[in-house]
Structures are given as structure tokens and as C-alpha cells.
Amino acid sequence: SSSPVGGEQISSIGRGLCVLLGISLEDTQRELEHMVRKILNLRVFEDESGKQWSKSVMDKQYEVLCVSQFTLQCILKGNKPDYHMAMPTDQAECFYNNFLEQLRRAYKPELVKDGKFGAYMQVHIQNDGPVTIELESPAATVDPKQLTKLEKQQQRKEKSRTKVPSESSRERNAPRNKDDPSASSGAEGDVSSEREP
Questions:
Q1: Which one, 44, 112, 135, 182, has least CB within 10 Å?
Q2: According to the UniProt entry, which residue ranges have a biased composition of type Basic and acidic residues (predicted)?
Q3: DSSP assignment, residue 140?
Q4: Catalytic residue IDs
């Protein structure tokens, strides 16, 4: 894999892993450490006897090429990509450099290469297999579930809010019904409003 910038090749590796790193607004040191561990320990290479999925990049002493890739944080709005979940450039550059530093510290600095942050790069990947594996930090996988729980709670709150006024207005109308028959239309109005979605 190689990553040329403006016609100049700034990084290349032989056999190993090409890591496209998308940094989210919500990512912290915890996610960073998890990703470093996962990348270095992921068993995607064959062993000496040719057995598949048994050796990590560290086991094989292969290289790692990292490329910052904010487009991995894409959320589609209709047919238009939206990147509001990507960490802003200034923060992301600091996070990315910290990620590289930790990767080098946990492995061998000379075996970890990187592209140029924020530059337009033509990344040439000769994908072996081809094998592409998507890794997500634990926080990222838990979040959607928490969001749906929160959404359900919110819906429940909204439902209870819509019920409360109709109940209280019915109570207010009830005494009037005894004295004034014309008030019954008001009570009917409350009932029909509850039937609306």
C-alpha cells in the first residue's frame, strides 16, 4: 500500500495492514487505546503451515500504514453524505498523532507509517484476499442502542404529555356537562383529539 500526495509518494509498505482511521466527535483516549490493541492483535494472517486467520501483524512483524479518513464517519441524509459526526480537523489531527504515537509505542516505530493528515491523497491499496475488516470501538457499538432507548423514553414522555391535557380538559368539562348540555360537544372534541395519531 502507498499514499502519494501531490504526485509525491510519501509513504509505502509491503505486506501488512492499511488502517483507514475515521475519528468521531465522541472518541476519547479509551477508544484510542482499544483501537490500537485491536489493530495490533487482529488475527488476519496465515501461520507458517498456511493456516488462515491465525497470526497478527505483530506476530508476523509486518508493517502498518495509517491514513486519516474522516469520510468513515459519513451519515447519509437521503443521497447526500453528512459528516457532522466527524471530529473537527484541529482536534482530529491531535487525536490522530496521539493514535500513531501509541501504535508505535505498542509495536515497533519503524514498522508504522502514515499518510499526510488532511491532505488529498491517492491511496493505492493492493488488497490481499481481498480482506477488509471494519473495527469499531465499544462505545460506538453501544451508542445506537442507548439512543434507541432514549428515543423510546422520549416517545413515552411525549405520549404522556399529549394525554395529560386531554384528561385534565375532560375533568374541567365534566361538571359543565351536568349544567350545560351544549358543553358536550367540547367533551366529544377531547375524545376525538385522542384518537389522532
A1: 182
A2: 146-157, 168-181
A3: H
A4: 71
